[in-house]
């Protein structure tokens, strides 16, 4: 009996995988970039942002939640799929209030970096301009929901790593928002500590450690060095340095 | 303080009734709200402490469901059903009349705290609307007089129990009966037949019947049951999905009102086949009036030995059913969202696989079947799979219940063998002049008159059971706007394309309806529909913009009539947006206004 090879083909590239890996995990480990936002290698797959949506053997699915299986033909970097991703990013931009030029996360922000990489040149849709809360009550951590994209990384980090469940998503539909675990609803009244994973996991700066904002100046930050498709910390470096 | 005591007592009592079981959070919150009118921040804190869970998680559940109030509201809460058929029957004028009765301007609570008036999604009364919910109880057939009468009762603080019985009347309105609606329920007949066949024998009949689920997706029931039977882990669970939230659908309401024995016996047949010991009927909040009668049917069946330990004297076959109430969330009709809700969480669809038959309620193998599907299982147990497969079409066996509403002479429930032509249905219900029908509810398809020869079947026009009829003179732009509103309200908010897309579609349709749309906006709606269909997490987002695009494609002139004749037109009123600046500047002269050149 011939052994079935644990390989998926992504945009024509042969990508080996370990049984149990998702398509996204296999791709990133092999140095193949699939854009993603709510996925983080340290946390359980979530599949909510849909930026990593690929077409597998003709069917759409989130690369972060679909298991890699032998024989899969995955389309990811096609113009049509890139256009979808651009639209999803535009959706996230108009839904919140994103002030990139003045944001202290600029250059370290995954949403911003993905938008640059996807060549998102306009907001396309009318902005929603939601009224969102800024909570400065915690001594070490600022919660500014203007930037929140509901990726739930803070929810997962606090629950699964810190064992605290400081964050949850309340509401429904357009009313969805992050809430914190305190009777007052204020972050300062929770047991969140600056050492917690949840205080550092936010990809967009809705949760920001205080007093470190510009210690690395804008221009010298992670995604200032190159497009996220090349410098993402989630991407394995291949031998040829790609 | 006395109020604090009242609150503590209500919270403790509800927690105790549910054994401080965190999976019963939706029920717990329902009962507390019944006592206290709303769920205050202190209440949420107390519930979280009592259950030993994060307060944020309790808040997440409390704010997910439409019927939970986390802000103070009136002692009486009135919600107007706002489906497109309610709108066609004039619900908005009645809503405004009710607001005027209390001097309110829209979706708010009166200053004296007596009453709140708002809107809600389809209440499942499409054949006898416009309907309202008063503190969760449905009042049908609203008229101007009935609005005034309700306002008077509220003003005089008359308890709901003392309102005229007639207000709460809900009729079955069965207009065409076939084997299901026409056949009697002989308690135990189908279940004893199933037991006599043995588990495998009964499953073989299910396979032979080729029954496909009546909830919309049309998955083969026997395959689902066999997968659950073969799944490891237990105890296994049977769930009856009675969250009939699809706008325009009400046939499950009729089955639960008048054929509940068949539903529950169908659940027991399923339990027998897969080896399940626990059953839930997940009943949508809007059908609260059915809860007590259903409890009575369950009690009767337990007394007959059809439920409980050793069902019908069969050693080792223990099965019972518990009713759980929803709290206003369309997405809970999706089976994994329903399971999340059963576990006391917000009803957000899970990642699949694993499918519920492998890992469902509390991680146990779980079969979720629609109300009508279980009635069909009852028929198959009674009369065999071959008999069942003799009706309908090749891929769609048996009969199908249709809920018909809108512009027709005889709205109600109709039972047909699968394969019936839409034109025949329209002739039967008195809607020969219809210009379009929406089949399958808001997530279904809009069929225009030139396609009325098409047939109701999985091979052609599939449906969970809604048929909303639009007669001559109906503007399909308004219909599209109603569906866009619905999905923007009911998206669970989990994934980007649905959470943002439903709102973008709503804004664009509203812009067109208001006369500010352009061809570019119509194109954008279609692009959004394509994106949502391909990237959304669950069926809700995947189908949310379908009806709008169907309307756009089949009734394009209706949309084009409303377009502004320019390439680009902003969605907002330029002059109105300067109002704040004018106020700040303290001037309102002619030069402080922009002249709008465009007149729609």
TrEMBL record, chain A:
Residue ranges occupied by any 2Fe-2S ferredoxin-type domain in the UniProt entry: 5-80
4Fe-4S His(Cys)3-ligated-type domain span: 80-119
One BP annotation, GO: ATP synthesis coupled electron transport
Secretion signal span: none
Cofactor(s) required for function per UniProt: [4Fe-4S] cluster
Record keyword 4Fe-4S present: yes
UniProt superkingdom: Bacteria
Record SMART domains: NADH-G_4Fe-4S_3
Any GO MF annotation of the entry: NADH dehydrogenase (ubiquinone) activity
InterPro entries: 2Fe-2S_ferredoxin-like_sf, 2Fe-2S_ferredoxin-type, NAD-red_Hydgase_HoxS_gsu, NADH_UbQ_OxRdtase_75kDa_su_CS, NADH_UbQ_OxRdtase_Gsu_4Fe4S-bd
The entry's keywords: 4Fe-4S, Iron, Iron-sulfur, Metal-binding
Family recorded in the similarity comment: Belongs to the complex I 75 kDa subunit family.
Protein name as catalogued: [NiFe] hydrogenase diaphorase moiety small subunit
Gene source species: Oharaeibacter diazotrophicus
Organism lineage string: Bacteria, Pseudomonadati, Pseudomonadota, Alphaproteobacteria, Hyphomicrobiales
From TrEMBL, chain B:
Residue ranges of every copy of the NADH-ubiquinone oxidoreductase 51kDa subunit iron-sulphur binding domain listed in the record: 477-522
Top-level taxon of origin: Bacteria
Function: NDH-1 shuttles electrons from NADH, via FMN and iron-sulfur (Fe-S) centers, to quinones in the respiratory chain. The immediate electron acceptor for the enzyme in this species is believed to be ubiquinone. Couples the redox reaction to proton translocation (for every two electrons transferred, four hydrogen ions are translocated across the cytoplasmic membrane), and thus conserves the redox energy in a proton gradient.
One of the Pfam families matching this protein, by short name: NADH_4Fe-4S
Family (UniProt): Belongs to the complex I 51 kDa subunit family.
Protein name, as recorded: NAD(P)-dependent nickel-iron dehydrogenase flavin-containing subunit
Reported cofactor(s): [4Fe-4S] cluster; FMN
GO molecular function: 4 iron, 4 sulfur cluster binding; FMN binding; metal ion binding; NADH dehydrogenase (ubiquinone) activity
Protein keywords: 4Fe-4S, Iron, Iron-sulfur, Metal-binding
InterPro entries found in the cross-reference section: NADH-UbQ_OxRdtase_51kDa_CS (IPR001949), Nuo51_FMN-bd (IPR011538), Nuo51_FMN-bd_sf (IPR037225), NuoE_N (IPR041921), Nuop51_4Fe4S-bd (IPR019575), Nuop51_4Fe4S-bd_sf (IPR037207), Thioredoxin-like_sf (IPR036249)
């Amino acid at each position: 009996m011939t052994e079935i090879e644990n390989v998926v083909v992504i945009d024509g590239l042969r990508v080996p995988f370990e049984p149990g890996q998702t398509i996204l995990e296999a791709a990133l480990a092999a140095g193949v970039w699939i854009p993603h936002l709510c996925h983080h290698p340290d946390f359980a797959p979530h599949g909510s942002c849909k930026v990593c949506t690929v077409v597998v053997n003709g069917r759409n699915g989130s690369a972060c939640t679909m298991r890699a299986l032998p024989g899969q033909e995955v389309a990811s970097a096609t113009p049509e799929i890139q256009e979808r991703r651009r639209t999803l990013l535009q959706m996230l931009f108009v839904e919140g209030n994103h002030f990139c030029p003045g944001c202290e996360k600029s250059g370290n922000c995954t949403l911003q970096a993905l938008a640059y990489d996807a060549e998102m040149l306009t907001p396309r849709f009318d902005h929603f301009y939601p009224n969102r809360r800024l909570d400065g009550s915690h001594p070490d951590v600022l919660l500014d929901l203007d930037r929140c994209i509901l990726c739930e990384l803070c929810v997962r980090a606090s629950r699964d790593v810190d064992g605290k469940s400081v964050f949850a998503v309340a509401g429904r539909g357009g009313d969805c928002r992050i809430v914190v675990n305190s009777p007052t609803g204020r972050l300062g009244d929770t047991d969140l500590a600056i050492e917690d994973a949840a205080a550092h996991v936010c990809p967009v700066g809705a949760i920001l450690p205080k007093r470190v904002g510009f210690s690395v100046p804008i221009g010298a930050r992670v995604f200032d060095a190159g497009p996220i498709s090349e410098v993402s910390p989630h991407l394995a470096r291949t031998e040829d340095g790609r | 303080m006395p109020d604090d005591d009242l609150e503590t007592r209500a919270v403790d009592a509800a927690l105790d009734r549910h054994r401080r079981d965190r999976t019963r959070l939706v029920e717990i919150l329902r009962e507390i709200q019944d006592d206290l009118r709303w769920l205050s921040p202190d209440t949420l804190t107390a519930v979280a402490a009592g259950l030993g869970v994060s307060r944020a998680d309790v808040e997440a559940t409390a704010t997910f469901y439409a019927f939970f109030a986390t802000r103070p509201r009136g002692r009486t809460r009135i919600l107007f059903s706002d489906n497109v058929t309610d709108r066609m029957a004039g619900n908005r004028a009645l809503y405004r009349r009710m607001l005027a009765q209390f001097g309110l301007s829209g979706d708010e609570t009166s200053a004296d705290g007596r009453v709140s008036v708002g809107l809600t999604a389809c209440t499942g009364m499409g054949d006898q609307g416009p309907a309202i919910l008063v503190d969760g109880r449905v009042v049908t057939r609203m008229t101007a007089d009935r609005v005034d009468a309700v306002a008077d009762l509220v003003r005089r603080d008359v308890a709901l129990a003392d309102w005229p019985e007639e207000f709460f009347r809900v009729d079955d309105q069965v207009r065409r009966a076939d084997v299901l609606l026409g056949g009697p329920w002989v308690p135990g007949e189908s279940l004893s037949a199933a037991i006599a066949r043995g588990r495998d024998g009964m499953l073989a009949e299910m396979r032979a019947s080729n029954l496909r689920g009546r909830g919309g997706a049309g998955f083969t029931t026997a395959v689902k049951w066999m997968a659950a039977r073969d799944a490891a882990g237990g105890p296994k669970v049977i769930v009856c999905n009675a969250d009939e939230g699809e706008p325009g659908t009400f046939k499950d309401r009729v089955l639960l009102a008048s054929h509940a024995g068949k539903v529950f016996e169908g659940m027991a047949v399923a339990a027998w086949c897969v080896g399940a010991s626990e059953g839930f009927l997940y009943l949508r909040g809007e059908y609260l009036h059915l809860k007590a009668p259903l409890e009575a049917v369950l009690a009767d069946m337990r007394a007959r030995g059809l439920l409980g330990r050793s069902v019908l004297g069969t050693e080792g076959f223990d099965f019972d059913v518990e009713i759980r109430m929803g709290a206003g969330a369309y997405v809970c009709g999706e089976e994994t969202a329903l399971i999340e809700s059963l576990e006391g969480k917000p009803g957000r669809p899970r990642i699949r696989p694993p499918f519920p038959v492998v890992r469902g309620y509390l991680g146990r193998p779980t079969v979720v079947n629609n109300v009508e599907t279980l009635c069909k299982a009852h028929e198959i147990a009674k009369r065999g799979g071959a008999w069942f497969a003799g009706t309908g079409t090749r891929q769609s066996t048996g009969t199908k219940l249709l809920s018909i509403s809108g512009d027709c002479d005889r709205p109600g429930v109709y039972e047909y063998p699968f394969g019936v032509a839409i034109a025949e249905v329209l002739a039967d219900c008195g809607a020969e002049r219809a210009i379009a029908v929406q089949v399958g509810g808001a997530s279904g398809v809009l069929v225009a008159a030139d396609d009325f020869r098409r047939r109701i079947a999985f091979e052609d026009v599939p449906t969970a059971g809604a048929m909303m009829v639009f007669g001559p003179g109906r503007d399909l732009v308004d219909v599209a706007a109603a569906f866009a509103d619905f999905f923007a309200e009911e998206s669970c908010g989990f994934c980007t394309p649905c959470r943002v897309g439903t709102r973008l579609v709503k804004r664009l349709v509203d812009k067109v309806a208001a006369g500010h749309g352009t061809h570019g906006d119509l194109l954008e709606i279609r692009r959004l529909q394509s994106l949502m269909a391909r990237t959304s997490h669950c069926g809700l987002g995947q189908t949310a913009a379908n009806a709008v695009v169907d309307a756009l494609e089949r009734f394009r002139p209706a949309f084009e009539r409303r377009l502004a004749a320019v390439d680009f037109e902003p969605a907002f009123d330029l002059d109105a947006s300067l109002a704040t600046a004018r106020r700040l500047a303290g001037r309102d002269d002619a030069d402080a206004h922009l002249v709008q050149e465009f007149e729609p």
